[in-house]
Amino acid sequence: MTNVKPVITWRKKRLHRKIVVCAVLAVCVVVFCILMLSLGGVFYPPQVILRVLSGEQIKGATFAIATLRLPRMLAGLLAGAAFGISGAAFQALLRNPLASPDIIGVTSGSSAAAVACILVFNLNGAAVSAVAVAAGIATAALIYVISHGAAFSGGRLILVGIGVGAMLHSVISYLLLRASKYDVPGAMRWLSGSLNGIRPEKILPLCAASAVLGPLLLLSERRLKIIELGDHKAATLGVRTNATRLTLVLCAVGLTAFATSVTGPVAFIAFLSGPIAKRMTGDGSPSLLASTLTGAALTLGSDLLGQFAFDTKFPVGVITGIIGAPYLLFLLVKINRSGASV
After folding, report:
1. pLDDT digit string (tens) for 170-209?
2. Does the domain at residues 17-337 carry the CATH identifier 1.10.3470.10?
3. Do residues 111 and 265 lie in contact, with contact meaning Cβ atoms separated by under 8 Å?
4. With contact defined as beta carbons under 8 Å apart, do 64 and 42 qualify?
5. Taking Cα atoms as reference points, which of 131, 82, 135 lies closest to residue 252?
6. Domain extents for the chain?
7. Virtual torsion, Cα 327, 329, 335, 337, nearest 10 deg
8. How far apart are CA 108 and CA 96, in angstroms?
């Protein structure tokens, strides 16, 4: 009995730390949301924001907050949360820190399809979003089929995904080179990952996907942690590994595709959220809730930096790329020094 007490104490401390971290992240997200609604050409205090959100018509404020700033804030919040939870799920499922949707090519499928719609077929709005979602899911299915062997291999899936992503980036480059110079800026704005000009109707599919797929991922966290132990141990503990893995992949890919269709491929949010959340919670495996909040906070905070910290306004994807690229290089150097394989 005395040997069990330290374990119980340690588990309680870890749970307490996780609760505190999630609470702090939630407060940061709320503060960032308020700042995104307040800051702009005209500053609006919280009381004015509450009046507008309650339905009161205030000259100037209603248009600025409800039409311009609110959709931007909701897109950053939902897309960041979707990227965060899906990236953490991929990394835990494949047991590899490189296994995020933007690294293994899932978002590249959405990007290539969207660029083709914009530059080749002259489509925009909902049509581009729908094609981007379908292409992201199809790309994930293609990567899974190509990497499928006698047994599931996360390393093989990652390598295939990187290869497919490189091929799709080549397609994007070709389309940009062949396109009219008047059409390229629109495609480049989408590719950079941006919250600019988002309208409420574009967010509705992401809201629906987040409401359905997000809770499914959160409820599967316990089974995800068991699968991390290995398929044999998971099966011994009563987890249906293939069914669970398929459910997790479908939910993560769906969230990534819907988020990408709204904001474009916001760089490194899916890649960074899980490791940051894991380090803050001090847990050996990622907390999906903490990763969700981390993704939302990173996206909203980066957009605020891009809009107000510099003389020139930058899309959110540029700021997250600046933040994420050094970490990717650090991780690759760390893997190389440790002698580990992908």
Report:
1. 999 999 988 887 778 878 878 888 898 888 888 999 999 9
2. yes
3. yes
4. yes
5. 82
6. 17-337
7. -120
8. 19
